[in-house]
Amino acid sequence: MNDSAQLTWWQRLKGGLKETSSLLGGAAQDLAKRRLDEAAVEELEHELIRADLGPEFAQSIANGFAEGRFDPNITPEALKALLAREIEKVLVPVAKPLEITTRPFVILVAGVNGSGKTTTIGKLAARYRREGKSVMLVAGDTFRAAAIDQLKIWAERTGATIMAREPGADAAGLAFDALTAAKRDGTDIVLVDTAGRLQNRAELMGELEKIVRVMRKVDPTAPHAVLLVLDATVGQNALSQVDIFGKTAGVTGLVMTKLDGSARGGILVAVAARFGLPVHFIGVGEGVEDLAPFTARDFARAVVGLDG
Question: What are phi and psi of 257, to 5 degrees?
Fold first, then answer.
């Protein structure tokens, strides 16, 4: 990214996380007006949990004050900087790029309905096409005609090829045919959409397992990445999604969408602390340029309202 694009991305990120940063910034302002004694620290812990940063992170901050590691007479700006540093420590281990290691590199994309899954696939296709890679989109959400149509539009827009069937077709069979064609044609990236499954529907999750099983008949190493798209606005429900999808589909990395317009951006910190899964991309809007690789420092500073 050039400097002006980076600045634009930073402005979008900070703007997208404004509700979360306002919540945390307001709490920091109020609490730092007085010495952070036991009662104030307990209040801070409550505010961090309220911002969806998770009980593990909130407890860690509270323990820091209790053990004298942090100055109890801290100023509001210093408290925000402290929170940013501690958030960054949690996020650095999970801020990892998605590395393309083979051809065709198969990326299976999962998530519940409404998470932004199909749009994320389109944005990833655009990113990889800009890098000069050949891309195949696989319309594996065969339950929804709209999802198939949406991917066809993305294919046309990005110059990717598409493999699709009629609505109601067998998604696993489609994935098998797509991967066979990608191997034959030397396609660089295969992005496989899947039906939006609620994590508590066992039979639908079973179909996701079947897609993985069938693809491995073509390539025993596929899929090479299983991305779970998480909608930031669902807050704590994101934790159960990561848990169940991880057990079913072997999730290897995360994409978090809809960080704009939500006071729940902190859930990314809770997810990172709980699961330690790589976070590859985050989205802060509808535009193609609003999906970008995840960086720990930028996110940590934006989520508490500090400048980049």
Answer: -110, 170
Burial class (CB in 10 A: 0-12, 13-18, 19+), 211: buried
Q: What is the pLDDT of residue 233?
A: 85
Instruction: Name the strands in the sheet holding 279-283, side by side, starting at the edge strand that comes first in the sequence.
Output: 161-163, 135-138, 189-192, 105-110, 225-231, 253-257, 279-283, 291-293
Per residue, what are the HEC states of 236-281? CHHHHHHHHHHHHHCCCEEEEECCCCCCCCCHHHHHHHHHCCCEEE
Which two structure tokens, joined as six digits, stand for 187? 């396609």
CA distance 255 to 51: 20
The pairing of strands 189-192 and 279-283 is: unpaired
Lowest mean pLDDT among 81-85, 183-187, 211-215, 302-306: 302-306
What is the model's pTM?
0.91
- Tokens standing for 123? 């944005």
Strand partners for 291: 283
Range 229-249 average pLDDT: 88
Please determine, for residue 61, whether its predicted confidence score (pLDDT) is greater than 60.
yes
CB 257 within 8 A of CB 109: no
Higher pLDDT: 60 or 290? It is 60
Alpha carbon 200 to its chain centroid, in Å, reads: 20
80: enclosing H helix or E strand:
helix 76-91
Phi, psi of 221 (to 5 degrees): -95, -5
